[in-house]
Amino acid sequence: MADRSFSDVSLAALYDQLNPWGAGDDFYLDLVMSARSVLDVGCGTGRLLARAREAGHAGRLCGLDPAAAMLVQARRRAAGVEWVLGDLGSACWEREFDLVVMTGHAFQVLLGDEEVRAALTAVRRALVDGGRFVFETRNPAARAWRTWTPDRAREVRDAHGDAVRVSHRVEGPVLGDRVTFSETFEHPRWERPRVSRSTLRFLGADALRGLLGETGFVVREQYGDWERGPVSATAPEIITVAG
Q1: Which of 55, 136, 160, 180 has its Cα between 20 and 30 A from that of 117?
Q2: Would you say the pTM of this structure is higher than 0.70?
């Protein structure tokens, strides 16, 4: 679940346990391995690019993230990768990457049309001619937020073996395409739980195509799942390949 909780060092260390490697990571790894130069926007703990390097990728790999705590984890994981603190608003690459990816539903933290357009313009500028931008968002028709309830709390172990309980709660009514939720972390050694509040935007396939088109992109493919199934009312994802 993309949010801003993991700017905390102790929480950043838990990110990969809360979000284990899965089919989506395999999907992106295949793309990265076939590209000479790759920018991972919102790279988090850096595991995608680190795995690519371990698998023999010999080209340029660059990870961009606004959370310094996440990049601490990334830098521990892999040498030979550029780890950059910042976001697309502060980036200034000019036609340097064959592939730009935005994983972990990070695209959904872009809330307004202008914010989306600015991000897409920066991605467009960073890509070489013929380059691809690949990202995924949750399909609003599937209403994933209905499962973000405290009774579905999860538990993971930190580096000391202590159990950390993580739960979610949707805050207030869903307003249009925006969902606001809280994320609560409870640890036996903490005086009180740590709570963060985030808002995500759920854009449909047509809205995504429209915003991409306004910034010079053409949607090449859209999938509803990591097996490349079609986008439908029940598909969990909208995975977009644009160029």
Answers
A1: 180
A2: yes
Identify the CATH class of 5-140+202-242: alpha beta
Render the burial of 217-228: b for 16+ CB within 10 Å, e for the rest. bebeebbbbbee
- What's phi and psi for 53, nearest 5 deg? -65, -45
Helices (H), 13-107: 15-18, 23-33, 47-54, 68-77
- CA distance linking residue 229 with residue 226, whole number of Å: 7
Neighbour-count burial of 154, counting CB atoms closer than 10 A to its CB (0-12 exposed, 13-18 middle, 19+ buried): exposed
DSSP H or E stretch at residue 85: strand 82-85
Domain range summary for the chain, segments of one domain joined by +: 5-140+202-242, 141-200
- DSSP β-ladder status, 127-138 and 97-102: parallel
167/165 Cα distance (integer angstroms): 7
- CA geometry: angle at 238 spanning 13 and 59, to 5°? 60
Strand-by-strand arrangement of the 178-186 sheet: 154-157, 163-170, 178-186, 194-201
Q: Per residue in 151-201, pLDDT tens?
A: 999 998 877 788 889 999 999 899 899 999 999 999 888 889 989 899 999
Asked if 240 and 136 touch (Cβ cutoff 8 Å), the reply is: yes
Residue with tokens 């390949």: 241
72-111 pLDDT tens trace: 989 998 788 999 999 998 888 999 999 999 999 999 999 9
Of 5, 30, 32, the closest CA to residue 19 belongs to 5
